[in-house]
Amino acid sequence: MTVLTAAEELLGRTADVVLLDVRWALGRTDGQDRYRAGHLPGAVYVDLPTELAAGASPAAGRHPLPSVQGLQAAARRWGVSTGSRVVVYDAANGLVAARAWWLLRWGGLTDVTILDGGLRAWTAAGGELETGDVAPVAGDVVLTGGGMPVLTADEAADLPVAGGVLLDARAGERYRGEVEPVDPRAGHVPGAVSAPTTENLDPDGTFATAAVLTDRFVALGVRPGTTVGVYCGSGVTAAHQVAALAEAGIEAALWPGSWSQWSADPARPVATGP
Description:
By secondary structure, the chain is of the alpha/beta class.
């Protein structure tokens, strides 16, 4: 699976791809304003809460998966057609754009990659920005779903018991239960392993090499043949972890409900500490 596109590779070729700008951050609502202030030429703004997720609920989490039909309608609005090459990016080193990458893969697209290093890498490579909105010609893509593996809460809970590895992609302090800025309870799923997503990155915000990522995941208990699942707060940055695992040649399933779903259910046990 090809996961990444380097900024240097994309220079001079933006007209040949569908570029999706996923400018979102927890607690902020100015993503589209920041997009309008400067984005890759021809890039289309994607709204994560309304286009990359269904409505939030305690039972399903803060960012449940959209329906295949809803995702298809959004992809067509973005200008995605059958045979399109899609590159997604953000201003957060891919931690948010990976959600669009994962969803489109899940929907059935194969030619979709993450701009490695995002907006910062683009400008560092000499790429220009344009301002304002982009209104693409509607696409005709057909999505089928099922293109990426998914876990339910029960399946995620069973993984460590059955010899698999369940990776918690949140910051270490949230995993340990020292802080919880948004979800009902602090801590982690019993048996889960702390694997902060930010540790997939080099200091410049690009992904570490496949060899470095492989060593990282081996140290976290992932071996050949291991069944791997990933969760985060609400299934956004966990997609980045799935992408990093894919770079290392490891298939992993995403748990969309993640901690926001688990912590909202008082019947679910919570572990704290390292």
